[in-house]
Amino acid sequence: MYIKSKDNDKFKLTKSLLTTKYRNKEGKYIAEGQRTIELAIEYGASIEFVFVNERFYNDPSKGVLIASLKESTHVYILDDSLFRQVVTTENSQGILAVINKKKMDSEDFNKNKHKKIVVVDRVQDPGNMGTIIRTADAAGFDLIICIKGTVDYYNPKVVRSAMGSMFYMDMMSLDNEEARDLLKVNDIDIVSSYLDTENYYDKVDYKENTALVVGNEANGISDFWIRQSDVLVKIPMFGKAESLNVAVSSALLMYKILGR
């Protein structure tokens, strides 16, 4: 099917998913790029439908992927002028998927599975959020909890930065109290990244069940998480920089907690 009209329901739905409000309302999100969509297939993401532009559809090298997609979902050719309205990259590869969200909340917590956790406290930059998701996957963490006020992890830029880890990692969004209660009742040690402490991250013994809290780019973790933490840790600064980017510091801390 070739879609040329801006009044097409699937086009209007996809365009609406560029906003958090409609991603929440529809329970769907956008994933862009060939490799991202290949990983969505590999990890069993629930793909609602796929849009490709004419160039992608007519490229002989894409035939195997398109055939694979047609076996499990609907593939539509979207007019180039419309396609440009639903992508967030300047040089799009010409393919995007609309995917159903994974529904997960505190009731889905599994204490036998979720032992290494990242709590993301109001991180705002989509690139940072996507990198944290990707790093948590790479480091072998089990769960990401996003505190209300954190950038939507279904934002297209987050999905792109996560490079497929989006479809693999368990993630949920909770408020401060919900997250605190979930961690405490399951005897999870809360370790927070915080500059104003004497505890260096490489001098601490981490428990098997640990939640790492990382904070907002400008302000760090909130007072709430400072009070709730069992341990506050920092990474030493040997040069003039006051702190590291939150995605970089998260990576160092995650690998240290895992003993890797």
Automatic annotation (TrEMBL):
Domain of life, source organism: Bacteria
GO cellular component: cytoplasm
UniProt domain RNA 2-O ribose methyltransferase substrate binding: residue ranges: 30-105
Keywords: Methyltransferase, Transferase
GO terms for MF: RNA binding; RNA methyltransferase activity
GO BP field: methylation; RNA processing
InterPro entries referenced in this protein's UniProt entry, alphabetically: Alpha/beta_knot_MTases (IPR029028), MRM3-like_sub_bind (IPR053888), Ribosomal_eL30-like_sf (IPR029064), rRNA_Methyltransferase (IPR051259), SpoU_MeTrfase (IPR001537), SpoU_subst-bd (IPR013123), tRNA_m1G_MTases_N (IPR029026)
UniProt key word Transferase: yes
Pfam family, one: MRM3-like_sub_bind
Family under the similarity heading: Belongs to the class IV-like SAM-binding methyltransferase superfamily. RNA methyltransferase TrmH family.
Protein name: RNA methyltransferase, TrmH family
Organism listed in the record: Peptostreptococcus anaerobius 653-L
